[in-house]
Design goal:
The chain is mainly alpha-helical. Among the domains are: 39 residues, no CATH class; 43 residues. Helices cover 58% and strands 6% of the residues. Strand 5 and strand 6 form a beta hairpin. Helix 2 crosses helix 4 and helix 4 packs across helix 7. The protein is globular. The two termini are 43 Å apart. It binds zinc ion. The site of zinc ion (ZN) has 6 residues, from helix 4 and helix 7.
């Protein structure tokens, strides 16, 4: 759920497999009665928590430190696979820069996120990525999927428990199982609401989100700079400091943009003999990014060669 949330998937000794890079298919939203019911039920739990924290709707024409949040949400949601849902932006008081999506289309931004983006220069392209990442969680129905996974796990536990007690108490397994599931239904909703998203789902939200950013006419490279800066927010504990999570998100997004030709060609033209220190620094940073992206590919592959051409062109300008 949380844009910057540390995903609790790792037990230090067990390690944590980093998900493989993958090209994600466009989601096909399921709007069955059951799916909508799950979405509403989980959103009711989460919405109440935000309400208790002091969240409020952001007005349709309201400007927050220069950002027109709701018009941005509208522009992005129109290009998604689920434009019919009502996407509404909310603000909640929290100085940590964060954002969250509810399954029913509500999107929450912390005051810290607005302030952080404003301090970075107030670029709508950066806010567009934050919002589109959240919208993507909703469009791809990540919480519905999580609910069903957890429900199946619970059902299995209930079946095993019912079977065990039926053997000793001669009660009907079906009755016991039904009782067990009913008892756990409310706690299941709470568990899903509290559990956050998996790393896979976060990576999917990044890739879907950047597609919406591009389709809505924003600059996708803003997302890379933003994720790069987020790396300094990662939990400073010794174990998590080496956690590659935000770095992986940026690398995978960069790879996706490289594959889809969105990183942009190196500036054409001859050698710039009058580079300012800022231009030189920008070039060095870009070279470093491209070299990192290149490491994700086998040497000599098409994408590797494409990146190498861009690197060569940029280096020729030095
Ligand atoms: Zn997320």
């Amino acid at each position: 759920m949380l844009f910057l949330g540390v995903v609790a998937c790792c037990v230090p000794l067990a390690g944590c497999a980093t998900p493989q890079y993958a090209l994600r298919p466009a989601p096909m939203p399921e709007e069955s009665g059951e799916a909508l019911h799950i979405e509403r039920a989980i959103s009711a739990v989460q919405g109440k928590e935000f309400e208790q924290e002091g969240a409020r709707p952001i007005g349709p024409a309201e400007r927050l430190r220069g950002f027109e949040v709701q018009p941005l949400v509208d522009r992005l949601s129109r290009v998604t696979e689920r434009p019919s849902l009502r996407y509404r932006a909310y603000l909640y008081p929290d100085e940590d820069p964060n954002a969250a999506a509810l399954a029913d289309g509500r999107i929450y931004l912390s005051t810290g996120m607005i302030n952080y983006l404003a301090q970075r220069g107030g670029r709508p392209d950066e806010l567009a990525f934050v919002l589109s990442h959240e919208i993507a969680h909703t469009v791809a129905q990540h919480l519905v999927k999580r609910y069903r996974t957890m429900q199946q796990r619970q059902l299995l536990i209930a079946l095993v428990a019912a079977g065990a007690s039926a053997a000793t108490q001669q009660a009907s397994p079906a009755i016991q199982q039904a009782g067990q599931v009913a008892v756990n239904a409310a706690s299941l909703l709470k568990d899903v609401a509290d559990s956050g998203f998996s790393q896979e789902q976060e990576l999917e939200a990044d890739q879907l989100g950047i597609r919406y950013v591009i389709q809505a006419g924003f600059e996708p490279k803003a997302a890379l700079a933003l994720l790069q800066d987020f790396e300094r927010f990662e939990n400073p504990s010794p174990f998590l400091r080496t956690h590659p999570y935000v770095a992986i998100r940026r690398q995978y997004l960069e790879r996706y943009l490289a594959e889809t030709g969105r990183l942009g060609a190196a500036p054409a033209g001859g050698v710039d003999t009058r580079s300012s220190p800022a231009q030189t620094a920008a070039r060095t940073a870009r070279l470093k990014q491209w070299r990192e992206a290149q490491r994700l590919y086998p040497v000599g592959s098409v994408s590797w060669n494409n990146l190498q051409r861009q690197i060569d062109a940029l280096e020729a300008q030095r």
